[in-house]
């Protein structure tokens, strides 16, 4: 194995002694029944809610696992899994239903690893983002050769090409200065996206997600941002190139966590294609615009990867058990990665929470912000970092932090109100990163005002 | 003249009747077509519901009654979190084609006696997560086609004995998560074709002896999460088709010797999270098809000899979280297909040499969290397919040489949480780790001694650090050949003899050959901050080091140099 962080310590395989689950495909009504069954079986640690509806009116159900479901506990990170974004790519949907049953069953069996995970993490599982597309694919039957039937939503739109395109804006800012995180949405974004996309965007803006994976099929590889090529606009569209994020090493590690914990993804040779370590930069594979994983990174605090899980997009029912056994450890280990890096509270002199404070790490051109409870989460690999917290009206504070292999490292910031009476100077964007103008968000209201002034990106 | 008159009249009469008839026919046809179109176009979806072809989902929290205008072609209807509280008599009789009716977490707390009358084709009925607590005896009496009935997570406290008496076609009955304390003895008498019965998560403490005697087709029986302290002898005696039996998470303290004696088809048996302290030797002797056996988290202190003799097909066996102090030598002798064996979290102090000898297919072996101090060199021999071995959290100080020599596939070895003594006796293990195991798996495996290596990471050790004072570092034998011999071989060997000189505390070590010394290791103060003082600048210290080769004196001085380039 290549060098990997020590987070792999709990690599001892999960016991096979788990209550067996039913390995079958689930149409929409069966999906709903299964989710309700898990919720009813584990009512104290689950919450079943919907984030919106598909074009045809099917609900996008989310099952939440937490020791206090429905509540964000400060310093407890939010993670999400999204399946079935392409309606005909169904393994993710089935795996997430199995994962839901597994978490519930293992919690009831007092599995210490799962108990700890549920106590320390707030897990949101959206088994199907495209329930209409799924029904189209399922109606074809799993053995038909229709490659794309059911991929799109009921309006014929590919949902992984339907998010606001923030990459161009980021590439411009990297060159000429401008925000490196929480890029704003265009004013008219709601009219540009499908109902499913709108529901997901509103969902990921409503919770301070830290880590995420969305599940696809047709290959076996863990794909990490950026999906959109940096060079796409300036070179031939047929040439692709690696397009790293400022957190490239971290994303590679997250992808490797999944691929190496997976039964066979790490072997690289799958589906007639080869990916070293079973991972790939999205843009170096093929470039795509308006994808969900780039949107998560550029608009929110969330680090999302894309998991291609099976060669056959709609595997036969008989293959589901093997797929579950191959993915189960990876699904758990990936969730555990949300506890790497640093986290803490951002407070003022009177110990009030500061929302929207900006957390910067020297050398990483991507900041994160504190949430509504004043807590922040910054995924980082083991090492020593210089970390700065800034908030409008407060003096910035910088500390040096060492992140160990067993995380997370707790780093609280207490900021003093600024006594400087300097008026903000309106500068034109200058050259180089040093003159980047950061826009800390101290409240959603202020952010709205800023967006109105700025206009469409 | 008359003939001519008659002929003229007849053609005139024929013309008028033909024309009106044609016109009427055309009008009727148009009218019929219009009616057909109207009927199709005006099939509305009931308010508060969503229609998908022949399926209806009603998820409106404000839906106060079952819609009366369900289209007649609908086959499936699902209510999710609706607010009506009663299903009235024959509530769905206007929808005779329904095959599936589902209520999920609604507020239904009353089902009228004939609520589901008029549904001759109903196959799947579910009322789950509702607050109703009782059922009338004839509530399901008209459902002659029902194959699946699910009444999970309601508040049922008792069931009338005749409840299922006319349900000849039922294959799946789910009663999980209710508040059932007792069941009438003849409740399941009519369910000859039942395959799955789920009574998990209730409050059952006992079962009438004949409870399951009619269920000769039953394949899966779930009794998990109840309050059984015992099961009556013979209660399972007619379940010849049973494949999976769930008795986990109860309060079972003992199993009668013949409880499972008729379960000839059983493949999986879940007994974890009980309080079983003793197993009769015949407990599993009839289960010749058993592949999974889970005895985790019970109170077992010993395993009777021959317990698993008759389970040759067993693939997965868990005995973790018990109180075993050892395992009798022949316990697993007949488990030649076993792939996974878990003995973690017991009180095992020793294991017989041949206890795992026949487990040729074993892939995973968990021995973590026990009290093992010494392992026999051949303990894991024959386990040529072993991939994962967990020895963490025991009392091991060393492992004997050759212990993993036949474990060709072993790539995942867990060693953390043991008091490893990192001296010459650990040479085999560290060499093996360097060659065969990825060090990433043992990043928390530390030396407990000797003092100068305490806290060091085992996989990072160098071979020359693993020394035992007073013993030759390379050869295990004293060379007793007389000096001056003319034999070249003897002379060559003598020339390479290595001596390790050390002080009693082990803080100073010196490795020498006949004519020269190669390395010196000095620990100036103990990591534990003992009373031994470290050396100050501009001081010197002297040690007399001993080995079987003799003794040497070592003097070390530290001089502070004047600051300069």
Largest sheet of chain B: 17 strands, mixed
Count of helix runs of chain B:
3
Pair with the most extensive interface?
Answer: A-B, 32 and 46 residues
Instruction: Provide mean pLDDT of chain A, rounded.
Output: 83
- Structural category of chain B is alpha/beta
Q: Could you give the distance between the termini of chain B?
A: 159 Å
Helix content of chain B: 10-25%
Q: Per DSSP, what share of the residues of chain A sits in E-state strands of 2 or more residues?
A: 15-25%
The number of strands of chain B is: 26
Which residues of chain A sit in consecutive blocks of at least 5 with pLDDT less than 50? 1-19, 425-457
Enzyme class (chain A): hydrolase
GO biological process, one term (chain A): response to glucocorticoid
Domain Peptidase M14 (chain A): 24-338
Glycosylation sites (chain A): 400, 402, 409
Structure overview:
The complex is a heterodimer of chains A (457) and B (565). With 457 residues, chain A is an alpha/beta fold. Chain A has twelve helices and 18 strands. Chain A has two domains: 28-337, Aminopeptidase (3-Layer(aba) Sandwich), CATH 3.40.630; 342-417, Carboxypeptidase-like, regulatory domain (Immunoglobulin-like, Sandwich). Chain A has helices at residues 28-41, 91-108, 112-120, 131-140, 167-176, 189-192, 195-206, 248-261, 282-285, 292-299, 320-336, 444-454, and strands at residues 46-53, 59-65, 78-82, 122-126, 209-216, 221-224, 269-270, 273-274, 279-281, 303-308, 342-347, 358-361, 364-369, 375-378, 383-390, 397-403, 409-410, 413-414. In chain A, helix 1 runs parallel beside helix 2 and helix 2 crosses helix 11. Chain A is globular. In chain B, the strands form five sheets. Chain B has a 17-stranded mixed sheet, with no helix packed on it. In chain B, strands 22-23-24 form a three-stranded antiparallel sheet, with no helix packed on it. Chain B has 565 residues and is of the alpha/beta class. Among the domains of chain B are: 317-466, Alpha-Beta Horseshoe (Leucine-rich repeat, LRR (right-handed beta-alpha superhelix)), CATH 3.80.10; 485-559, no CATH class. The radius of gyration of chain B is 41 Å and the shape is elongated. In chain B, strand 1 (49-52) and strand 2 (55-58) form a beta hairpin. Classes of the chains: A alpha/beta (457), B alpha/beta (565). Chain A binds chain B through residues 1, 3-4, 6, 8-9, 11-13, 15-17, 19-20, 28-29, 32-33, 36-37, 39-41, 56-59, 108-110, 135, 405, and chain B through 50, 52, 55, 57, 59, 76, 78, 80, 100, 102, 104-105, 126, 128-129, 152-153, 176-177, 201, 225, 244, 246, 249, 268, 270, 272-273, 292, 294, 296, 316, 318, 340, 342, 364, 366, 388, 390, 412, 414, 438, 440-441, 443-444.
